[in-house]
Amino acid sequence: MAEITAATVMKLRKMSGQGMMDCKAALKESGGDLEEAMSTLRKKGLATLAKRAGRDTTEGKVVSNVSDDGKTAAICSLCCETDFAAKSDDFGVVAGQLADYAMACTAEEGTDALLATEVDGKKFETVLTDMVSKTGEKTEVGDYIRYKIDGSGVFGNYIHFNDKLGALVEIETSSDEVSCAIAVTAKEIAMHITATNPVSVDSDSFDPAVIEKEREIAREQVKDKPAQIIDKIIDGKIGKFLADNCLVDQSFVKDDSLKVGEALDKAAKAAGGTAKIKRFVRVAIG
C-alpha cells in the first residue's frame, strides 16, 4: 500500500472540505488514490442520505438570485435537519452555490432538474452529497422556481433576515425605463408577499374551486338568516376573502393607505408608464 503522507491528507481535505480523520480513512481505503478517496467520501454522503431518508428537514436557508441583465430570476431553499447545521459556514457556502446552480438550470421548476445541473463540470447533486458526508445530516433542495421575462419587466426578490422565508415577484411593464424606475417598489412588493402570504395575484387568477368552497362554507354559516339577505351576506364574505388573499387587493405593508395594486400603479404612472404583477412565489423553510 502506498504511504499516506500528511501532504496527501491535506490535499484531499482541501479538495473535499472534510475532516482530517475522514480524509485519512478514505485514503487508506483507496490505497492512496485521491480520486478513489473522493469517491469513498461521496459514497459516505449517499449512505448518510439513505440512512436518514425519513428524517424531517425543517431548517435551512432560502436563497434567490437575479441575472445581470435582469431577465432571469430564481428562488430556492436548501433544507437540513438542525439549525446548528443551517448556520454553519459550510452550509452557507453550499446555499450560495445553490443560487448559482438555480440560475444555470434551464427548467423553470423541479428539483431533479436542478440536481442534475452542472456548473464547472460538477452537478449540484455531487455538491450536496459532499455536504452530507461532512455534516452527517440529511440535506436536500426543498423548493426551486425559476422565472424568465419576455419583453419589458422587472423582478422583485426578498429574503427575510432569518433566511427562512423569501419571495420572488415578476412584474410586466410598458418599457424598460419603467422597469428601472419601479425596481424599489418591486422589491417592496416581494417583502409584502413574505409578510402576508397571498394566495393569488388577483380574483381572475384565483382557483374557482377554492372560491366555490368558500361560498359553500359561507352559505352554511348564514343558513339561519332571512332568505332575502343570504346571497348579499355571502357575496360580502367572498369579497372579503378575495381582498384578504389576492395580492393586488391587500393593504400594502409599506403604506397601508394603498392597496398593493394601487401602489404599483402609482409608481408606474410616476415613471410615465404602466405595470402589472404577472406571477409570484413565496418560499418558506419548515
Description of the molecule:
- The chain folds into four domains: 46 residues, Orthogonal Bundle (Helicase, Ruva Protein, domain 3); 95 residues, Elongation factor Ts, dimerisation domain (Tetrahydropterin Synthase, Chain A, 2-Layer Sandwich), CATH 3.30.479; 98 residues, Tetrahydropterin Synthase, Chain A, CATH 3.30.479; 39 residues, no CATH class.
- It has a three-stranded antiparallel β-sheet with strand order 1-2-5. A three-stranded antiparallel β-sheet has the order 6-7-8. The chain has a two-stranded antiparallel ribbon with strand order 3-4.
- The model has no long low-confidence stretch (mean pLDDT 87).
- The protein has twelve helices and eight strands.
- Strand 3 and strand 4 form a beta hairpin.
- The chain has 286 residues and is an alpha+beta fold.
